[in-house]
Amino acid sequence: AAGRERHELRGDVPDITGQGATIRRWLRVCITMSVAGAVLLVVTPGGVFGRVVPFLVAAGSLILLMQPRISKWQEDNEHAWGPAAVSGVLGAVSVYNGYFGAGSGILLIGLLLLTTEPVLHRANAIKNVLLAASDILPGRAVRQHGDGRLDGGDSARNRHDRRRAHQPLHR
Question: pTM for the complete prediction?
């Protein structure tokens, strides 16, 4: 997968020319919040994932469905997104990416098209760079063991699990 990502990134070089400032600005938020999403995935009980995913999929689908209407409303009202709004939505998409991942590329393209880059192939190229870094770097920072612990971490969940492992079973 990493080789494929490198190949895709090389193919995107002409499309990201001149986008360095946007990529640098968005990269910090993408990586930081993707790590936060990955940490959430590791430290929350497994049952939470199963209960949350349908809502994540529904929210992502709704956003994609509404994207053309949002774009039209923006044009009609000459509305531009402020930096705080862009960072907030980018942070939410990045947490989603770190926690679940599926569909986050489409959500990121939608955000880019609404805020920064109106040309689809250039938005896709920027998305490839952002998600490659957001998927690779957090993956190296957060290593999941079979028992869900973080490297070097001592989460409340892990302490609780260790205490339970040493308690006798009561029936």
Answer: 0.67
